Amino acid sequence: MHYPWWYVPQLTAPMLIAVIAVVHVLVSHYAVGGGLFLAVEVGHAYRTRDREYLAYLRGHAAFFVLLTVVFGAITGVGIWWIIGLSSPLATEVLIRTFVFGWATEWVSFFVELLAAFIFLYYWGRLPEKKHLAIGWIYAVAAWISLVLITGITAFMLNPGRWAIDPAARNFWTALFNPQFVPQTVVRTGGALLLSSLYVYLHASIFARDGRIRNVIASRSARPALLGAILITAGGLAWYAFLPDSAKATLASSAVMNVFAGVLIASTLVVFAMLYLGPYRNPGWLSPGFAGLLFLFGIAAFGAGEFVREAIRKPFVIYNVVLSNQVLPEQVPQLRAGGYLNDGVWTRAFVAEHYSDVMADGRIDNKRLLDLPYKDRLVLGKVLFLHHCNDCHAAKRGYSAVGLLLQGRPREQTRETIERLDDNYSMPPWCGTSEEAELLTDYLMTINQPRPAGIHPLMKSGGESVDEYGEME
Question: Whole-model pTM?
């Protein structure tokens, strides 16, 4: 409530986070597993004096650095930029809680960058042992970064004791939350599996020598299969340590069921293709096979990220920050004094444009209903943007409220507002009854009419109004 609101029409700001985050995750896992692949395989090439394989690995390292260090760093910075704009309160909590962890991760990331550039640009100029040592320094630093970031994202899903016991609010309790080990296992397995899919795709296109392709296919099959096993084992533990509300959301939401189905089916297909292809038949590694395998892997990772993010509702950080950027303990205060009153930016907006409703520097909620209808709509929209737009678009777009309320009469819409948390995936209403009236005014302007062609014996839908209050 102490931050301005960043409005992203139709898509909504959190969905923009999701788009950038999924792209970053697909690259960052390769940054971890691919670094391990290069360290292991360069060591193997040095020991066996396989110059052709070493030459291929040098080309792969250039591709690896370009994708993970350059593009990966850009998307990583993009995540920081966008979460600060769209979820400022949650970002503040994470920074204050994990400042030591963030600092350590940034050091690890700096080591990654330095090691990656030395590994690539001093290839052939360093003694073999030193060159290989640089590769392993990169691999270890990248995995440390994965562990630290995983601890923070796991905390968002289930902070454990940290959320309910003030005495336990320290860095170590936050890091070693109930989801830490399961998600670390999943992420480590994901790094092994996804990096193998990148390796196969790259080798199928750029490794001209059939012997080199067969070496890569057979040597990378076991790490890929190990990754699939770790994902499965970690995924089961991840589910076991989910909060009850997250399990209920996963079970009851049709969208979650669809994405969970895509996740499970795609993972099984990837596992089968890895076993039947690179593990049993290395010669199958063609661009078509590798491309199809890569697409199924992307589908599994994308679906998994969607499920992981979506089941936190109604929280951004479970039991700590609600999805509308309000702390749970603030809800009674907001209901008593007003949502617009307790927001620094919302109160300043009302004071500037509607000074008649102000008294002693605060909003007199009873005067809100005396405003002209058009002004009530303006404040209703302000309430919508700050209270609802974190998860819902307005008339059209992602989870648009205008479509969710389609055909509902005013009375039912008004009742829905004050009983939002009857649906446990929604945050509670955080305003006064007068503010609920203003929000209802605005929602009725975006409420879509009941679909035509409904049987006449069925109850007719509610009327919707345009922004000037005229019936449609």
Answer: 0.89
